[in-house]
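Researcher: Re-running this chain for the archive, since the previous output was lost when a drive failed. Same request as before.
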Amino acid sequence: MQHIRRLTKEVPPEKSPQEWKIPSPVIEGFHEVISPGKTGCEFAYMYRLNLTSGKEYVLDSGRLEMNVLLINGKSHIKSEKLEECMNKFDSFYIPGKTRVKIRALENCIFYIGAAECEGIGKEFFRKYIKDLPLGEIRQIHGNGVCERDVYFTLNPEVPASRLICGITFGRNGSWTSWPPHQHGEHLEEIYCYFGMPPPGFGMHIVYCNPGKPDEITVHIVKEGDVVAMPYGYHPTVAIPGVKNTYFWILAAKKLESRRYDLSEADRYYI
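Model: Regenerated structure tokens:
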């Protein structure tokens, strides 16, 4: 008797794709949103820091490396090696065992990607430059209704332990991360949505089997929503009048997997 190989990935119910979306907290303070044991991720972390104008917070990376993105507001940061004024979409990277004092000059929201630090990486600050020439940091991916701007806050050419991070700016009502791709063997990913206030929304799609649209999970996403992807194909799309915008966090499962060229596209949609 011939055995038929089942393609569908078996997932414990508590770690199924239906549980991968988490709204991030909007109240004051530092909040853990994604960490190992939540939503199936084993390597990727995501935090949110909300500070009202005049408030201060000391960010201590501990055993983690962190890439910190300011998505709203204005702030001042100071560590042993850095002192900068941050504006919207500016970012900084710190390795493990690093403390940064953050002072909000306006009401601020920070998204923070993190992973275990393996002793690789040095502090740096990155000023966001919208019209930066195309290259290692700013790129355009896709074309037509799938075209989007990608801005690396932590590009693979910069030494770090496990993280690669960036911002995706979709076009009006367009697809991002298309064609559908996955990289679950090598990297976990988290999408952190912003700039999409209700009633606007997008749709975040996850599925495991190539060319099987009847097996998808669809998450309605808006500003503040976070979706973890320990595996699976994950295209997204915005409704007309809305641009899909999100901070994405890639965490390599092995040091040698800290690469941006390990994704595998769904061959049925290329």
